[in-house]
């Protein structure tokens, strides 16, 4: 079984390979009990937001990692996927700017993704 950090790395690799934009990971375990990490990213359209969610779920399922929660898929403005100790937030650009999770969770530790992300 993967650690939460290893799951984050795997998630980021998958999303980066599918051209997700502005991928950020926040370590929030000291700020909340709901999860250990948030992964936040942007898709260019509703179709891409859904495609990113679909692909991520498919690839993680191959590793035996199942999404425990899935919210917002039909509107595709903000899809939330919960994988054990990692919650993934896939946004359309305008929605991400409006909710600004990075500001809300500004006390969280930013996870260095430079060794994973090829385009940010």
Describe what is shown at a glance.
With 120 residues, this protein is an alpha+beta fold.
Index terms:
120 residues, alpha+beta, Beta Polymerase, domain 2, 6-stranded mixed beta sheet, 4 helices, 35% helix
Roughly how much helix do the residues carry, as a percent range? 25-40%
Q: CATH superfamily, please?
A: Beta Polymerase, domain 2
Rg, please? Answer: 13 Å
CATH fold topology: Beta Polymerase, domain 2
Q: Count the helices. How many?
A: 4
Given this structure, which CATH class is correct? Answer: Alpha Beta
Mean pLDDT: 96
**Low-confidence parts lasting 5 or more residues at pLDDT below 50?**
none
Please indicate the count of domains. Answer: 1
Q: Overall 3D geometry?
A: globular
Structure commentary:
With 120 residues, the protein is an alpha+beta fold. It has one domain: Beta Polymerase, domain 2 (2-Layer Sandwich), CATH 3.30.460. 35% of the residues lie in helices and 27% in strands. The chain contains four helices and six strands; from the N terminus they run H-E-E-H-E-E-E-H-H-E. It has helices at residues 4-17, 46-62, 93-99, 101-104, and strands at residues 21-27, 37-43, 69-71, 78-83, 86-92, 109-110. The protein has a six-stranded mixed sheet with strand order 3-4-5-2-1-6. A hairpin with a 2-residue loop joins strand 4 and strand 5. It is globular and about 35 Å long. The relative contact order is 0.24. The mean pLDDT is 96.
């Amino acid at each position: 079984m993967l650690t939460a950090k290893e799951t984050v790395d795997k998630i980021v690799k998958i999303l980066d390979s599918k051209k997700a934009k502005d991928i950020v990971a926040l370590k929030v375990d000291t700020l909340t009990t709901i999860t250990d990490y948030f992964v936040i990213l942007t898709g260019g359209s509703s179709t891409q937001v859904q495609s990113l969610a679909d692909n991520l779920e498919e690839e993680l399922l191959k590793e035996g990692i199942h999404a425990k929660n899935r919210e917002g898929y039909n509107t595709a403005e903000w899809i939330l996927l919960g994988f054990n100790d990692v919650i993934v937030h896939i946004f359309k650009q305008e929605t991400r700017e409006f909710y600004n999770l990075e500001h809300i969770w500004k006390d969280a530790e930013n996870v260095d993704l430079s060794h994973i992300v090829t385009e940010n």
